[in-house]
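Dear colleagues,

For the upcoming journal club I promised to circulate an example of a predicted protein-ligand complex. I picked one with pyridoxal-5'-phosphate because it came up in last month's discussion. The inputs are reproduced below in full, followed by the predicted structure.
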Amino acid sequence: MEGSHAGGGDQATRHGHTGEGDFAGQFDVQFEGSANTLEAFWMPFTWNREFKRKPKVITGAKDMHYTTDDNRQVLDGTAGLWCVNAGHGRQRIVEAVQQQVARLDYAPAFQLSHPLAFQLANRLIGMAPGDGAFDHVFFANSGSEAVDSALKIALAYHRARGEGQRTRLIGRERGYHGVGFGGISVGGIVNNRRKFGQLLTGVDHLPHTHLPEHNRNTKGQPEHGAHLADELERICALHGPETIAAVIVEPLAGSTGVLVPPKGYLQRLREICDKHGILLIFDEVITGFGRLGTGFAADYFGVTPDLITVAKGITNGTVPMGAVFCRKGIYDAFMEEAEHGGGTIELFHGYTYSAHPLACAAALATLEVYKEDGLFEHAASLAPKWQEAVHSLADHPHVIDVRNLGLVAGIELAPREGAPGMRGYEVFTNAWEDGLLTRVTGDILALSPPLMVSEQQIDQMVEMTRKALDATP
Ligand code: PXG
Ligand code: PLP
């Protein structure tokens, strides 16, 4: 990395950009009459001013590696944004999407459909957790939309059954459920909420489960913290349990910086929800499709929720798609309500691109690849190796906590005095320049490689992470 990360004085020439972020010569296609600069694109969840001074641009990907615009190979330590579970550029998925776009590019999603939508729904129900507990799938185009869909289904489900007073939604501190108004209302990440007004009313939050004083550097699930689920009883006592529609949690919290559920915690949440007739929603946008070495986190923890939201790994990140798995009885309640009420459409909700043909083709091919390559089993078999490797970083002076489960690790750094998040950002940049993609949330590094990762690549990731930590003041 030549130690030039912080100042980055030679970046402009190295990337072939001018100081103004001019991209001349970098793209195959030049649009007539438009200046090809970096400015027009308002980048999501990005420090735009910094990026446009020193761009990080990806132009290709294959298997475990990205190619950058200056022709470097970067090891993908994060499966993109936790989505490319089978690795990049998988031939089977590429061909499935290519063939589908030529055969049927789009079919209206309302009152009409196409064969792959039904095939995929059946396929997903076949692999859903809980031994046949789930029987229907609703399609969306992202995790955020899947969450919005699940919250609306929960509310309307109770109403369909004559329990319309169940309007409250319970999330959790530090939870991430995407960026729709529903998702940020039940979410618990303050920066994602504070600028956006009043949000949904009637929402309450469980406490998060991070107890560093008890659980620091725990390998796998922490011993302490199951009692935090009992806070749901307190919330029930406060509002009246009969006013609560649903509780939504990430079984393993990813985006906030990897919080592994304490032993017994999810079981306890399930018991309390059952006791009070509250729906339990697992948001498995990150944990779904093999991240913990099982199909879903619900399988891993042996806890079956009522609704599951998924996205990301469902198409290996190739085409946007989200979905909601519904437990038996939920769909039926809508059908019965409409049957008795003489209505036609049973659920007034859906997206132009629900079950888009390209997404369905990508998802079906992706599920084949997961199965054929035994990727969930591969992830499970590597988890012990992964655990030992990432915990070897616990002795680094910047590191204050290491957390892991399946093929996920969170490495929490001590924040730099007066500049929270800067150390994390610089480690991310140093690793990137040295050839490793990491993900950083504040001062917490997250690693979550494609499930095809090898033992040798795990060692390489940990080595490069240590080098980036060493290079960062
Ligand atoms: N729920 C959960 C649990 C998620 O992790 C979403 C919903 C929203 O999905 P969409 O597809 O709308 O982005 C997510 C997404 C990160 C990071 O590392 C995490 C996510 C997305 C981008 C970055 O902080 N999670
Ligand atoms: N806004 C307008 C004006 C629309 O017509 C539509 C869909 O028809 C939407 C938003 C919603 O778009 P989507 O169905 O892709 O979520």
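Two points we might discuss: Residues 309 and 324 are 5 Å apart (CA to CA). The chain has two domains: 11-89+375-470, 93-372.

See you all on Thursday,
B. R.
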